């Protein structure tokens, strides 16, 4: 009887009715099962978080792939090295669809002040 209530199917969940009646030790009435549809496998919030994670993972892998291909010399005194580093970082931002520092600051200001009609009222 304990086993009957634990039966699970991949697409449907089976619920057992506890209809086993033992009137006499030799006679047992079998359990009847009623199939019900199982709950959705993933909630909308879970799917949204999964998509965000996959997007960040894709951007990270793109940046790492570019950094593996490029040879970067880090020397703040050498103008050619600084210029080459700037090109590599710009390439990463373009291909991975990332914000620059100024774009990130602009986005933060816009999102935090979008409900404020005028700066003087804040």
UniProtKB/TrEMBL annotation:
<protein>
    <submittedName>
        <fullName>Uncharacterized protein</fullName>
    </submittedName>
</protein>
<dbReference type="Pfam" id="PF15704">
    <property type="entry name" value="Mt_ATP_synt"/>
</dbReference>
<dbReference type="GO" id="GO:0009555">
    <property type="term" value="P:pollen development"/>
</dbReference>
<dbReference type="InterPro" id="IPR031432">
    <property type="entry name" value="MGP1"/>
</dbReference>
């Amino acid at each position: 009887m304990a086993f009957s209530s634990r039966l699970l199917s991949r697409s449907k969940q089976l619920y057992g009715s506890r209809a086993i009646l033992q009137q006499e030790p030799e006679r047992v009435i079998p359990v009847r099962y009623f199939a019900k549809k199982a709950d959705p496998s993933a909630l909308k919030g879970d799917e949204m978080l999964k998509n965000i994670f996959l997007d960040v993972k894709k951007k990270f892998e793109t940046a790492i792939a570019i950094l593996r291909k490029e040879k970067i010399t880090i020397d703040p005194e050498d103008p050619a090295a600084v210029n080459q580093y700037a090109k590599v970082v710009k390439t990463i931002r373009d291909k991975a669809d990332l914000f620059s520092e100024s774009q990130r600051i602009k986005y933060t200001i816009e999102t935090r002040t979008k409900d404020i009609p005028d700066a003087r009222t804040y």
